[in-house]
Amino acid sequence: MDPLLFAPIETLRQRQSAKWRTHPSDVLPLPVAEMDVDLAPPIQAALRAAVERSDTGYPAPMPAMALALAGFAGERWGWELDPSSVTAVTDVGVGVVELLRVLVRPGDPVVICPPVYPPFFDWVPEAGGRVHEVPLAEGRLDLPGLERAFATHPAAFLLCNPHNPVGRVHTREELTELVRLATAYNVPILSDEIHAPLVLPGATFTPLLTVPGAAAVAVSLVSTSKAWNLAGLKCATIVTASPKMAALTDRLPPDTPWRIGHFGVLASVAAYTEGVPWLDQLLATLDERRSLLGRLLAERLPTLSWQPPEATFLAWIDCSSIGAGARDLFFEKGRVALEPGPLFGAAGRDHVRLNFGTSAEILEAAIDRMAKAIDS
Ligand SMILES: Cc1ncc(COP(=O)(O)O)c(C=O)c1O
Known about the structure:
The chain is of the alpha/beta class. It has 2 domains: 9-39 and 276-375, Alpha-Beta Complex (Aspartate Aminotransferase, domain 1), CATH 3.90.1150; 45-274, Type I PLP-dependent aspartate aminotransferase-like (Major domain) (Aspartate Aminotransferase, domain 2), CATH 3.40.640. The protein contains 13 helices and 13 strands. Helix 6 links the parallel strand 3 (109-112) and strand 4 (130-133). Helix 3 (41-52) packs antiparallel against helix 10. The chain is globular. Bound molecules: pyridoxal-5'-phosphate.
């Protein structure tokens, strides 16, 4: 099989997406979670064919997308989901907010585990709730802390699995205990599984809905947008596995499925049905990048520390040796843009998040610039 293609920097700079349009052209942008990889060939073909047919009308996601997802989830994770329990939503963010609108009364607490994907802090108040933080404990779910929080009867728990930014893949044992607690205290779980296809060699993903008992308390949100780099096409899915949780999706605004992207549906079907060999190549490449980043950090930036992620193309780097100004130092002196750790919650104060979903050349250049920024 051909090696994965990462576009050269000159081509990347022509991209019009947020990653390549936010910063001046002398900056290497490694913040926002888009990859610099070329689209998987079957997805390119599906989108080209749609353009050739002038097939740019409204989406018709079902049953094709649900069947494609069910086929992928069964093969990949042994998750036998019912295609009729799949609801299309614009993106994971819209899915979470709309579900929270159903679950939350004004001011109700919703539990999240920082450091976590920054919009979690926004989605909860957008739906009228109030964030209740139970920070990760050494990068893992703090199950006793979650039990204490669940005992106060929050409206929901928003799980991130795999967890952005630390890259942790929660184990089946941890998820089993989580489900036990959620059942005991009657707390619905919204499981954001957007990074699930990006679990790297060495770790095993457990879809929450495959944990015994989860069907009655949990809803899962999945999407092709991270693993196949399709965020701009606006298409994701909510999956339920019990009448009780399906009642939540029944209460979503009736026009919800009309608000997705038609190209997102076509691309997602191609990804799940024909894009798996490409995904496997991507994961092998990201595994190499993860090792390369480890070597580069050890050689060039030995005062920084990190725990290599078990999933995602995101590295959570501890810059305590530099202090809270690390992100600005790398940006101003090194012209490398990284995601500022404090956006992920107080625990991210001295951290930056680096996106290694790029070519080895760009990764090496970025670390070189960061090392020179410190030396200066
Ligand atoms: C954990 C997590 N959830 C959701 C999103 C955003 O997904 P969407 O664009 O489908 O709203 C991201 C994007 O990086 C993410 O990391």
